[in-house]
Amino acid sequence: MGSILVGKIIDTNTLTIKGILETKGVYTFLNPVSYLDALYNKEVFAQFDGIFADGNLLVKAIKFFYGKVVERRSFDMTSLAPELFEYAGEQGKTIYIVASRQEQVETAVKIFTERFPKVQIIGYRNGFFTHDRNMDEEARYICKVNPDYLIVGMGALNQEKFLLKVKDAGFKGIGFTCGGFIHQTSQNEIDYYPMWVDKANLRFIYRMWKEPHTRVRYIKAGILFPIRFFIERIFG
Hints:
With 236 residues, the protein is α/β, with parallel strands linked by helices. It has one domain. It contains 13 helices and six strands. It has helices at 4-12, 17-22, 32-38, 42-45, 56-66, 80-91, 102-115, 132-145, 158-168, 181-186, 195-199, 203-210, 215-235; strands at residues 25-30, 50-53, 94-99, 120-125, 149-153, 174-177. It has a six-stranded parallel beta sheet, with helices on both faces. Helix 7 links the parallel strand 3 and strand 4. Helix 3 packs across helix 13. The protein is globular. The relative contact order is 0.17. The model has no long low-confidence stretch (mean pLDDT 91).
């Protein structure tokens, strides 16, 4: 048996980045922390066209328990983000962003356009909604302006639900969740991880040092993730 989440990660790994950037669909990412939450919301994640393994620990767990080699892919500057921005700029594609707080997303957009001058960001707003009606209105608006790419960063589960809401509203482009990428960029840290940290696969340790509020959840994941992953492998 096995986890439907891991099955979707393995299937998604067969796709090339270029293929993903050219084919309609919505994609999200799982790391050892969000994987634990996803286990209680499998019906949500099953609706995505693809799920990426975001984190070296998850990559290693899949190799050990499933015998499958998958690539780590994250929506940050060490992985998918620069490829999307560069491709969008070269191909004249448009981008819409829903993430973080308003002042943070505004700062991030300015940084993106400075780093990638050809990128066309046709709209952006914060990721906070007062009620579901506002989310529905925004979903319909996004479908109306019809961006080629939609980037959503609202925290685990909230961002997935919103992206699926946009898809259900008739979105014809390609959507990605991005976690804390916009927040990190707004702190003038678009290159969040130093090169040596990325090469040594010490990203989670670096983030624990950089952002103390993440320590509890990373420690929790370090203890619970291997146990839950093993159980899912056996019982599905």
